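Instructor's aside before we start: the two examples that follow are unrelated to each other. I chose them only because their records fit on one page, so don't look for a connection. First example below.
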Amino acid sequence: MTNSSIAHIASSFFDALFDTDRPKALSVINRAIGRNIAPEDLVFSVVLPGIERMTDSMVDTEKTNLSQHFIASQICEEVIDLLLPLFSGAPSFQGTVILGTSSGDFHGLGKKIVRGCLRSSLFSVVDLGINVTAERFVEEAVSQKAAIIGVSSMMVHTALSDQGPRRVRQLLHERGLEERIKLVVGGAPYKFDPELYRTVGADAWGENGMEAVRVITRLLGAQKP
């Protein structure tokens, strides 16, 4: 594989993501597989840079919108599911993340974008869906041996609710899990008040899908001896 060939594949894949053209994106990847491009190279040099560029285009230049980013993240998830079984060895996941929207919150779009970005970055994600109780977040984290709980809240009252992230923090404290399991939050209320994550007891917050990946990667790195 030459740098020019992988760059061409990456460019074609990003164009498909930008246009939210699923058939074209899958065609680009399948043609690359047919040319014996290593699936590992496709993940790290094509898929991950593609979703990063989509995030940058939305945040920095506002050339893409939330719905485009959502569809792109779903395409990337599908491509990851296609490529992982083709790895030469068992893929090494960065860690397990328990993901869901807070109790009383029924908005799932942002969470799905984060899930797509995490899976594209080789995190194992357990998506609990919407309206998830604090107890279930913690129980699943313990059961799955996860180091991260990610709670999405799209409304101020669900972010500040006593049954939301605050309750997750309380349970982690009561069970002596605060050093082992970190709490990350995200959603519209935190964009309006970047210090809100401290108010609800979270360890960090992610402004968008790829920022969530960076924050979680940083937290996991800090936990390693």
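Example two begins here.
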Amino acid sequence: MKVRFGAVTFDGERKLLFREGTVVPLSPKAFHLLELLVTRRPAAVSKADIQEALWPRTFVSESNLPALVNEVRHALGQSGHEPGFVRTVHGFGYAFDADVVEAGARPEAAHRHLLLWGSHEMDLLEGENVVGRERQASIWIGHPSVSREHARITVAGAKATLEDLGSKNGTFRDGVRVTRSVPLQDGDELVVGQVAVTYRFGVFEAQTPTAG
């Protein structure tokens, strides 16, 4: 299983977790916990089921599970003061609470829709891609000028459109504020809040995220 949620890519086959294109270290038990929650989404998983999956027929301290949950949340960049990917279901267990997009392997060279933000390449997938500061956003931009759900880019085949979602600081395409859905063309310069990104569409060599 390989899926994407927010700025995170979970690769179950290779046992790797990426955030913003960088490998994030995660202990085997914590990785197993995240895999279990993602697989069972959106259902909540009881503490008893988690215990049996992670420590079958073994007695462990009650503090082990909360420690693993904290490790997973930290790896995902989730703050304890705001909603995030792993939700506590009080008196029961935990649930994975985010939209997930299948992130299957793509050809070495293929038509891709991209947003370029500094050194980061962010793929735009078929359908709706919400751009925002919320960790669960399809395209996560962690800047205070960006609203939680700031803008939406909709991909339909070879076409893409951009619309603002009522953001506080606005969305701009080539210097003009976006007030309705507008088409995007390769090379368009976009400003989301105060963050400049570039929209690209074309044939690009696929890149594998690396550590560092």
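The chain has two domains: 2-102, 111-203.
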